[in-house]
Amino acid sequence: MNNAEIVELAHQNLINTYGCVPLAFVRATGAYLYDADGNRYLDFFCGLAVNNLGHGNPRVVRAIKEQAEKVTHVSNVFHTEPMARLAARLCAHFGDGRVFFCNSGAEANEAALKLARRWGHDRGGGRFEVISTLGSFHGRTFGTLSATGQEKYHIGFQPLVPGFRLVPYDDAGAIEKSVHDETVAILVEPIQGEGGVVMPHGDYLKRLRDLCDRRRLLLIFDEVQTGMGRTGRLFAWQHAGVKPDIMTLAKALGGGLPIGAAIAKAEIAQSFTPGSHGSTFGGNPVSCAAALAVLDALEQDGVLENATQVGAYMLERLRKFGKGCSRVKEVRGLGMMIGIVLKGEAKSAADACIRQRLLVNATADNVLRLLPPLTLTRDEAEAGLAIIERALSAGTTAAG
Ligand code: PLP
Predict the structure, then answer these.
(1) Is the shortest distance between the CB of 129 and ligand 1 below 6 Å?
(2) 51, 84, 267, 347: most buried, per Cβ within 10 A?
(3) What is the share, in percent, of the chain residues with pLDDT greater than 90?
(4) Does the C-beta of 250 come closer than 6 Å to ligand 1?
């Protein structure tokens, strides 16, 4: 089937929840995707921050094949070696933790929210409320939607789940003022991703940690987008040295296969007991084998170092370019998570890049978001940046 045929078949049969780009991909390798008409695209999108190792990483492909030939599913009524080993590896990185596995970012956050409520319940005193931030994105289930600080996602779904309070991001004072007797936890992204690559300033995360310690609240970091090396460290909180009580992962954890995880300090994790939470597919052995290979690559193949170096180069070059481009307001980011804030809407710039065979996306209306593979070479970075610069320059005089 060619691009047009696949797109048409999809349009006729899928519920229309995604504003899809009319392209269908059939294979991929490294930083490149190939569509059904044989065109090659440089990927600065990575399936929404999933393909952090690029496409077809040999470690990940081998792990998936080998595990698929052994056993693909047993349920959580039994154990598998990949799940046990992945839990141990994640706990070692987190330090004194326990893991709950699920299948997506929303489910990981849902688990974190339920664990926080159960923890509050166990301590008595009727504490259940979670404070989250405006501009955040935590998922589309009713719980995570209620924690998500963007009204556009709430429209038509009210009433939302009670017990959530939204405050401005990057304002520790606002959170402190909102804490009251029923508050049990604070949920934040260390860098807001979908909200436009919004970076908190100064010691924001540290102040939240101090506040949680003083008021006996749980600090939950949603690392679904920032985690697994995206910012140049395995977890974004490691830059600030501020460890959360619960951390959520998904997206890049499975190297392209679906998996999510909520990792909690061991003492907090005790609030979940048999029957209190679960997921049929959670900790699927093929996804866990893939995730183990992802960790191997991140730990042993110099991937984080590359993300730091190439990411810093891209930020620097884009900032220089931005000074001379009237459309660019600000360039911000960390590692391979970069936002080019434009003075107007960003969708036309993203479309212009895609027409020139560079995959990027627009978020928060005016932010062109770059999420390249952490393995991107300097030459690939140059090629992608040249397209972005051309698209933004063209946009200053004529339609991109
Ligand atoms: N949390 C963050 C920070 C995200 O960026 C996303 C997705 O973009 C989610 C949660 C939801 O993840 P999923 O789409 O896997 O449910």
Answers:
(1) no
(2) 51
(3) 97
(4) yes
